Automatic annotation (TrEMBL):
GO molecular function: nuclear export signal receptor activity
Record's protein name: Importin N-terminal domain-containing protein
InterPro entries recorded: XPO4/7-like (IPR044189)
Organism, scientific name: Tritrichomonas foetus
Highest taxon of the lineage: Eukaryota
Amino acid sequence: MISDEQINQLDSLIQEYYKSGYCPNQETLINTWMKNPTYFSACVEILENPNSSTNLTHFVLTSLKSLISIICSKWGPNEFYSFIEKVLKVLFEQIHRFNNNFLLSTFCSMFSYSFFLGFRVIPDFKIQENFIQAFLNSSFQIHHYAIIQIFTSIIETMKNNKIYYQNRISDFKDNLLLYFFKVGIQFLTDYDFKNAEIKPINNQNIINDASENIDDFSKKAQIDNKENFLQLMNATVFDLLRFCLTFECDSDQDNSMICLSENWNDLLKILIFRIPEIFDTCLGLEGDFHKKAYEFIFCITSLRIPKDIFLDFSNSLVYNMNHLFTLNPIENDLDFIEEITNLILKIQLATSLNYSFPIYKDFIKNIYNFTLQLLNPNLLENGFSALFPLVKFWELYSSNYPKKVKKVHTISQHLLNVLYELSMKPNILSKLDFLEISQLSLFIYTLGKNKEMEIIENIKQKEELDKEKEKLDQIVKKKNLYKQKLLESNIEILEDENNNRNFPDIENEHFDQRLHNSQENDDLNSNNYEKTEENVDTYYSKINEILQTKLNIFLEFPNNLQNEQQLAMSALIVSSPIVRKFDYFNHYSYISIVYILRLFEFTKELTKTASHELIELIILFIIKQIERNPIYFDKALRCLDDKIYCTPIKRGEQLHSYLLGRVLHIAKFYPSDSPIIDQVFSNILCFFSLKLNDESITFMEEEFLENFLYVKKMQLRPNRKANFFQPKTWKMINHINFHKFVGSMINTLSTKTDVYYSTLESHFLPYLKDIKERLEKSTSINQVIPLLLDLIGLFRGSEGPYSYNLFFNLYFDCIIKVKQLSIIPNNDEAKNENIQINPNFVFYYVKLFSEITNNTNNRISFHEHSSNGLKLFIESASFLIFIFEYIPRNIDAVSSLLKYIFRVLTNLLSNDYSCIGALLVYNDETLYKLLHHYLSFIHDTNIQNLSCFPKLFYESARFTYFLLKLFFNQVIQTDITYILTILIAFSFINESHNDLTILVSLDVIDIISKYCILHINDDVGKGLILGISNYLSIYVGNCLTIFLKRPKLLHENVLNIFLNIFQLGVISPDSFEDEFRIIYDLTANENIHKIIHCILNKSCA
């Protein structure tokens, strides 16, 4: 039992801690009161003490939440029920201590977490209804507020921790959650609760103790008058009901339907019956409370309503929404416009709107007026997010009722005027989201197309009415002619039914009515047609005029930011549906020009009136933008497709050829360290993904050769000495990117027709041979390294057999000859003892071999009688043997080099061209030397630091997998400690490593565990198992921790690997029981359940 003196000392310490955020014994305070279970009873005593200050009460509540998570595993039902009863009793009897949101929310958090732990640990865990009823039957409204807050907190906690009780979710939903919802409905329907008398409560020591910790909302929670508290109470009940309904939704604004079981039907009927009262309550709320009411109504519209009450539900929602618009003009709800518009759209989606009913007509009329009021530039200056639900509403309306587009067309015209007006205010442009504007412009464009369809429909109707009228006139003439002939012959006209069957009576009312209607509709339709046609023509001519004017102004003053922004806005207003396919760009002027180009493709009316001069102006503008800021060239490639590239221009060239030629020409004059070099050579390969024609490819080659490969060249003369290659000094990365482009172009040309093959030989082979000549003549590292980078780029760009074989046959022998530069010259007599390697040369040389040995797309396809594959393996392995002997034994110093070494090793062991089988049959010493030197290097290196280098860790795990898969016995015989070394490195695996690395490491562990199982009775197997057991346990623990956060990695193969590990008998599954039980709850896969059951029951055999 804790004494009063100890409580006072703790209280003073807590007061200092809460005031300054720090106290001298802070760490001890936390470790004792929040982590030591022996302090649990003391925390309960302090909580029960009515004289405990607010800050001290808050501290012990936080401590109880932490401590109960530690001791809950040892508790049974009695302990849980006793604790819950005790804390609820404190809350009920000392409610004045919790009369602020600061303490009450902390109490609810502690209580709900305790409830969750009890529900998780104890089957059939239930809430104590006797105490709940005590709160509900109390005459103090603060008791009602507190219990509703507790219910809401429980639901929130259970929702956030569903992963831990997947198999009992239905039990919680159909029992406890239903009970909470029932209590919330009772508050909506039972007026005794709402009219409960507010009795005086002692509010002392509430504000003074924790004034800095009580926010505005908690101050509203103070009981000062009945009206304010009723608003708080209503908002709290709305929150509870909303949390109940959205328990299984990912978010409160989730648009998916909420499906509840039949047990909820009776309560749903009561809820729907109370919709008018909910709307009335919404009108009476203020501030944040008002917002909560809208959120709850939005939630109601997501319910899947039973068929027998669906019509009443729809009518009630629409009727009360009309009532809301009547009593609550837009000026009263400026802070909640977005909530209202979302609600409007959701009502349309959730109800069967029959626009022939009066209340639905009123609804459409109210939404129309509301939309026009919202289309106010002053209301939209800060963004358009509130407008998008209404745009979607009218899109759905126009698609369901295509003939009723008058309102929609008016809205689109208002929207166009608002956007244009905003585009004239440069101070507002910076606040607007241009992606939003693009989406709104799509709405305008779509409605414009709908208006055109209406015109076409009117024309068709007019033509049909004309045909019908003409037919009726012919019938009348025939009958009159027939009667005239009868009168002239003095023949008695008999009223015979058969005679009149084929001729309608001239006095027939139906006929007269049809004729009258046809004439009336003809006049009306003619007027409408002329009017709508005039509107459409005016609309597109206005767009064309705006764009033409602004383009000319901008080209005249290209550095004027205001002109750029206005041009961008104008283009976006009339942009096409492409905005849904591509990301928008930040550079306003660039956005505008791309969208104008797209406009020519999608807006045919504008294309007909647009001249070639305007299109050429746009192309010249793009070139200007690239000259000013070349990094946007990448975005141009992603936006402009082959359709736009075929747009004709005045010069007769195609757009893509013209653009590429200009860009290459511009890039030529930039220094090698300019951003344009990085950007152009990194993205120019995008052109090969387009459907380029023969002329375009030829033009691209010639421009490329003219501007980059040759210094002076008026005409292509590859066999003349006048062709000199550029001695341009490139940056390191540009060497690779540039020659990757060359390799890719050669690869593309090699797959084309014979014409392109001859082009390849005449245009590119001289340059390739020039690289070879320079490599052969190079005598220093400074000369060789740039050429090695060129070769890295060439091999990286060669994705097919032809280009790869071309480069291999041309360069491989030269590459082997220059490897002597890897040794730093040494005049010492004891040369073999003091050999030093040149780190820069070795790095790029190994990087080159990682590209040469990489068999991407199965490009390495030597002739069946060729020895090139064997030569590639021998030379690569020989150089690696040399490297392993002389590089430093410090992984931190050589981590970058090791990454490429492991890549080369993996490529050599995993591909057929290496002829591993032949080397094994003939006991080739190169293969065994490579294995020996590698194992020796790993033995002497601090390999445990691998985990600090994620990319290196992945490459090493990949190679280890192939090494053990092919040579496990040889590794054991050479150096059995290698297995232990690898496991030490793997034991440091953590969340920084990607999924692929983790899975590859598991494959390695699988190979090791299977070997150990096969040799479990051998001395070698027993020694290996004993040596790796500790690190294997650490590895398993780390992997399970990662899997709990990345459940998508869990599958049967992974758990089978763990099953094999536990089968060794050196690790107990009990150490990981909690993790496996959580994994069990995470998945519904029966096979995984069986494997976990096998692991936990130790029945692996």
